[in-house]
Amino acid sequence: MHLIFRYGKFGVPCCTAEDLLSYRMKSVVHLWLFLQLLGSEGITVLNQTPSAFYQLMQADRENQEFGQKLKLRYVIFGGEALEQGRLEDWYTRHAEDMPKLVNMYGITETTVHVTYMELDKRSVSSRTNSVIGQGIPDLDVYVLDKYLQPVPIGVVGEMYVAGDGLARGYLRRHDLTAERFVANPYGESGSRMYRTGDLACWNDYGTLDYIGRSDQQVKIRGFRIELGEIEYVLSEHRDIDQVTVISREDHPGDQRLVAYIILQANKNEEEIFDLRRWAAKRLPDYMVPSAFVRVDAFPLTPNGKLDHKAFPQPDYAAVASERAPRTPKEEMLRDLFMEVLNLPHVGIDDEFFHLGGHSLLAVQLMTRIKESFGVNLSIGNLF
Predict the structure, then answer these.
(1) Is the CA virtual torsion 179, 185, 189, 191 positive or negative?
(2) Cβ neighbours of residue 92 under 8 Å, at least 6 residues apart?
(3) Which of these, 111, 166, 223, 325, could form a disulfide with 331 (CB 3.0-4.6 Å)?
(4) In 3-state terms, what secondary structure has residue 263?
């Protein structure tokens, strides 16, 4: 008997450190049981989001006796961008063809797959973007610029999908249908194509590299930032196992970049501060996250995707030192740091940018110092 098993419900909302620890312990048990279930029931086809499979990989690594009993023939990825380099660890324990790993890209408007790409050791070792392959037979895929002209190989454009497998539109939403289902200049008269909002480019092998969402760009302090670019740089750090970067606005008008990381085994919290300096050498100042938060596992939605709303709020006060001011001037300066950073406690050894400070707040701090001490300082002095 050949069974198909679709599983994604690993994640639960969690906000505090205690919640994350409890979630991590429950998640580990669930993953062990799930891995054992796959083998005992002889599951042959598994359809998972990449985020869920990364956790299953960890369970497979820690319980190799269960992993060796798997009968899987195919593992099909979908729902999220796949980080191919993360699969190298899987291939150290499993053959390329047992199971075969297949990355698929899909949208609801085609219900649901659009492209496919069978993976192997060579493809994942290249550490490229998420290669989503080529279109399935009943669909046509175009990568176009803003003028609806095809882009050259290696140039990023927006993906459009047309063909027999495309939906006709949204029920009773004529305005939205007209916006997303546009006339297809490359098909028969009257045909339409769907504007996906996803960015991709053709590579030299005639397959598609998925780049990300066109709406993943954020604007902070006047700078337009692609979160995926920051994640890509941070993922190259040897001590990082997983990373995701999100934009948070925990206080009105104060939007900050926060990196959530899972460190490799046997690494500790001290690595986070080294990571900040490491990132500052490779990213512009405005792209360096204000906080690096270590978590044991990423919270997932019931569908197995990253649940960005469930990530904990950074606790900048937790990294503040305990050394108190020694003079009245140090006490006044400490109070200014606390006021500008909106923190209940700051030690005299703390670095402004480690506590969530950024260039805009630095200007405010310099202004407050001038008002309090009558001294003109530059941001260079603060650095």
Answers:
(1) negative
(2) none
(3) 325
(4) strand
Judge if pTM exceeds 0.85: no
Q: Pairing state of beta strands 74-77 and 45-48?
A: parallel
Specify the amino acid at residue 191. S
| From 41-50, 137-146, 190-199, 309-318, the region with the lowest mean pLDDT | 309-318
Residues across the chain: 383
79: left (phi over 0), alpha (psi -120 to 50) or beta: left
| Whole-number pLDDT of residue 260 | 92
- For 222-268, write each residue's pLDDT tens digit: 677 878 778 878 888 888 888 889 888 776 666 788 899 988 776 66
Token output for 119: 């993976």
CA gap 98, 221 in Å, rounded? 49
Both tokens of 73, joined, read: 């023939």
Handedness of CA 262, 11, 219, 316 (dihedral sign): negative
Q: How open is the CA angle 45-108-37, to the nearest 5 degrees?
A: 25
Sequence-separated (6 or more) residues with CB below 8 Å from residue 252:
none
Residue 118, SS3? strand
Give 135-159 pLDDT, tens digit per residue.
998 899 999 998 999 999 989 899 9
Q: Which string of DSSP letters, residue by residue, matches 128-163? A: -SEEEEEE-TT-EEEEE-TTSPBPPTT--EEEEEES
Under 8 Å between Cβ of 262 and 253: no
Residue 2: its pLDDT value, please? 42
Backbone angles phi, psi at 223, to 5 degrees: -100, 135
DSSP state, 56?
Answer: H
CA distance 337 to 158: 44
Q: How far apart are the first and last CA of the chain?
A: 66
Predicted confidence band of residue 94 (pLDDT cuts 50, 70, 90): very high
Q: What is the helix (H) or strand (E) element at residue 76, kind and residue range?
A: strand 74-77
Mention every residue, 6+ apart, whose C-beta is less than 8 A from residue 13.
299, 307, 309, 310
For residue 134 the two structure tokens come to: 């080529």
The amino acid at residue 248 is R
